Sequence to fold (153 residues):
Amino acid sequence: MISFTLNGQLRQVDAEPDKPLLWTLREDLNVVGPKFGCGVAVCGACTVHVDGTPVRSCSMATGDVAGKSVVTIEGLSQGQLHAVQRAWIENQVPQCGYCQPGFIMAAAALLKANPKPTDRDIDDALSNICRCGTYGAIRRAVHRAAAILGGAS
Fold:
């Protein structure tokens, strides 16, 4: 059994330690916000936070999160939408929406570390891939979320 905190709740899962965290979340714990995109940690559709750091869950072993805190898009907001989620809606970012949970998780981590990011900061931190090409809307939404959070970039 592997124990870790998932979206604020202690969870135990009977999974092989080398099983990718993404599949443990989706198959064993029914947490489907993180998406499978590439399987090699390039696209970012599977981004979650582990102890506050954004990671690509497709390439992280479940055993590596033992005793740690994992937050998915489902656990990002506490009672109301997170500022990044609000900004995403205001800026109508999604087209197909498949990659958006990963982008939102990456953006939330960026704004926690850098409350006033420049366009360059955003481009560097959000290395996720959007096949619909909504990068301009994503950048605007990150700036709007910074303003909502009081950083006003």
